[in-house]
Batch of 2 targets.
Target 1
Amino acid sequence: MRKNIVAGNWKMNKNLQEGVALATALNEALKDKKVNCDVIIGTPFIHLASVVNVVDKNKIGVAAQNCADKVSGAYTGEVSAEMVASTGAGYVILGHSERRAYYHETAEILKEKVLLALANGLTPIFCIGEVLAEREANKHFDVVKSQIETSLFDLTAEDFGKIVLAYEPVWAIGTGKTATAAQAQEMHAFIRRTLAAKYGQEVADNTSILYGGSANASNAKELFSNPDVDGGLIGGASLGVDKFMPIIEAF
Ligand code: 13P
């Protein structure tokens, strides 16, 4: 059955020392705790190797926030999936709306990134979600379906089974305006139906679908209590142990 997951996305926050300190503190907070979800932290590239070194890998998974769409070579400034995997990180966040909007990552580019992540043994946490205008035009289901189809539906069922999805309505990210539990459940159930139609009910039932967008200690319990919401991808509230732990403990 699918896993419950609480994943932090630090985005471009924390220098190396601050990041290592946060990971160390989270590791400490989880040390003697039994929690009912997998915990992942998504750090900037340069933090990965150091963070992997200070966390108990049985308690905390480590994710990159991106990887290149090329294997290797003359791509100045890029970081390959193989490099990410070589740090000991096990996950990579792909298709975040900030990457799509600010760095023009297209469905085709993301398709390549997903394949390279999988080829290097990384679990992609693949983000999808509509902007406000699309929701207001009642196009949010079509948009999300198309994001999934165009980047992921060429995968075999076996490979698709390795993907974690994160529904992040863009209008909820960093705005303090969370989707209601009902809006999240409605979309997550739609996503699961979409997966079932393509890969069958078993694959759909085994796929973890996380919610992201202004999730925090006060709304996590309600969001996570929905049958199709399997956890959260947490931005701002993952930047401090005091804010992140209660979300982990919401399960
Ligand atoms: P916030 O939790 O800060 O809204 O960010 C959500 C997000 O984009 C996680 O990837």
Target 2
Amino acid sequence: MKKNPSCRVRFAPSPTGNLHIGGLRAALFNWLFARHNGGTFLLRIEDTDIERSKPEYTQSILQALDWVQIASDEPMVIQSERIREHHRMIDQLLVQGKAYKDYYQQDEFFELYAAKYGSAEFAKAYHICRDQEQNQGDKPYVVRFKLPLDRGSITFNDMIRGQITIGTEQLDDFVIARSGGFPMYNFVVVIDDIFQEITHIIRGEEHLSNTPKQILLYEAFGKPVPQFAHLPLILGPDGNKLSKRDAATSVLEYKYAGYLPDALFNYLVRLGWAHGDQEVFTRQELIQFFTLEAVGKKGAIFDKEKLDWLNGVYMRAADDVTLCATMTEIDPTYTDMLPFDDEQLVQLVHLYKERSKTIAEVMQEIKTFAHEPAQYDAQAIAEWVDKDTPALLVSLVNLLQTIDSWQLNKIKDNITAVAKEKGKKLGAVAQPIRIALVGGSSSPSVFELLDILGKDESLRRIELLLEYLQQMPG
Ligand code: GLU
């Protein structure tokens, strides 16, 4: 496909809640579309719903976008700051006779319509409304757009779904400003998209029914209609719309649950978009390969296991120092309570990230490892401890005591030597040590853990197990 460097796209969230993953995916698709084409990505906060919009939601949306490193190429537009312009454009339509003031209350309008004409002749109902006296003093009114009744059906080419046709009989004289003068979403979105010179509107499928109304408004203003692309929904495992039961829906929850932004980015782009069988993409590759033509029409099922797998892939590839910084971003007090210095932490992250799905899991593992085991796993003891074990551990402690400079290779050599001397397999020595260090028979490399923990703490933990074993009946 030829690139289109003059394309301008936008992500236009309403701050009526936190950014959810469906919203983030729309943002990513817009961003990738812009980057792929060498075009412009813009951000607009649609805060004109004054009852439901909250500044704290704007903040959390911006934080979430910042977290995934998506930024507007031009200063962000705050919709409420353009309210005078919205009013001006409503007045323009009123003056041009393309909109009218409706002093009936909405229910009254429909009641009147139903009583007079019945549901079959919908168009006639407009005349009741349209022929109203347009200046009724202080009486409250809504402003309705005058549906062009001779317009015929509205056809547009959705870049994902192909040609879509909607008959105007499915529309009505929709309200563009509520009583009190508040302009409605379908109106302001068009005014601001014209203002920001948006060429492609990429947004969720839930907006599909708004598109014909918006096209009519572009036509009323004599402006070119942008291209539309409606993204399929994200579905839960049961095939229904994704709900809070299926997945955390707020993006920042993923941050605090220990997912890496690049992993979530990669995962969400693959949700509904494919490039052959490839699963793991660098951001550069996504920019290179992304096209709307490769976005599917069908809803995409959210698969938490796949996200976990992908996060593991990204964690293993990530730099350990960066992961440590991420841990304190997740919890600024995290390292305060730990007996490890920066170097030890980096080493522990390196070991535990191999076995974990999220950074939060790594953090929990390290936190547990920071203290001697609260208890020993009975099954591990039954499997790995026999009557010879206490003597073995005593020899081991004695030998390890003699090590002056506590280093990985020396630790390894000494433990191997004890096993050999006692005619035991390495596991017969290493597993009891593991139980001493972590309480059970599963952990990263025992040698590395001993190395990180240091001589004193390592020996203390082995001696604690020894004490425990000596007190064990039988
Ligand atoms: N503000 C709308 C929303 O959050 C999006 C508008 C649009 O993309 O056209 O759903």
